[in-house]
Prior knowledge:
Elements: H1 11-24, H2 28-50, H3 54-66
Amino acid sequence: MNQSVTFTVDADVSEKFCIALNVTNETQNTAVESCMRWCIAKTFEKASQTYKPKWLLFLDIAHQKVM
Length: 67
């Protein structure tokens, strides 16, 4: 399922984006979706690094007591 998205960007960014599209022969839709997927992946990667389940915290405490 596709969804239409509209946003505003700096004119210089838009110009350079169009140049990059010409170099890669990608469509705007493909390039923007790729960037969005990258952003999603990086955001969830960071979130998962900061998340510590309770059982992992328990292991950290138990490990510190052994040392």
